[in-house]
Amino acid sequence: MQTAVPSSLDADMLPQPYLLFLGDTVEPSYAKTAFGLRDWARDRCVGEFACDTAQVTTGLPFLSPAQAQQAGARAMVIGVANPGGRIPAAWIPLLIQALESGLDLIGGMHMRLSGIEPLRNAARALGRRLIDVRDPPPHIPVASGAKRTGNRLLTVGTDCALGKKYTALALTRAFRARGIDADFRATGQTGILIAGAGIPMDAVVADFAAGAAETLSPDADAAHWDVIEGQGSLSHPAYAGVSLALLHGSQPDVIVVCHEYGRDRVLGYPHYPLPSIEDTIALALTLGARTNPAIRCAGISVNTAGLDHDTAQRVLAATAERLGLPVADPIRGGDAFTALVDACLARGVR
Question: Where is the D-glutamate N-acetyltransferase-like C-terminal domain (predicted)?
Fold first, then answer.
């Protein structure tokens, strides 16, 4: 395992376990932080808490902050990643309730917990901590464009919130199961909370974003793999800049394109149609070749969570036949995922 990337976060120092806060979320995709922690750090989660108007659940026990504290929780994590990373005024009383119940607060929003005066005053009076993980390290350099040693895989999406993080985590786990030295490199707040290190790419000043991606995956041994969590989409009307900087700076040798079956409009931007998988592959390879001419697409990760098993298998097989590439749902695993892992690790294939 290679040296951890810079981070203002040390997972071992975070107050754990967590109560997951879902706010007033009605769109499951915006609760991806809560779902990510439930699925990849379940042993650190005691339950969930939400506003009365929330329509999303992780399936964990619903606990008040006081009940969670009695159950062993030490912090409440804001499990929401909504557009703009805002903390609505309606959440503030519930966040203060958590502080009053003896819990610290952990946030990964663009809006800093420490920047909200009522929370700051309450935390100070109660001796509690406000921990903001969407905080990039200082002194990030401008990208050099220099080639680095080691191997890099980047997950690339047709849209936001459809499986890039899950795919990267699943591939890292699969690589390690084969005895391969591999690190998951987190680029968003949920991944950072899971991994304990990383850089929140969308919080980096634009001129330094590609440099942050270089810093995220430094020189490594020839056999080492960095599996880098993708962000946004190269075709996204708002977030494409983050995606492009990550692509250029990470210089991936391999990309895996991620897509959610049945999604045909950009999440939160319904007037924009989703790009096709084929167009996403072509665009990523064209733009990625600027910093790594040897870039290749190993295959496709399809989120089939909304399908039953048999239908999902038919969809994966049909998509693989159409594209001529391995296609798998990493959460379902199976032979299709094994084929995708094989393709990622294959040498000399363009």
Answer: 142-334
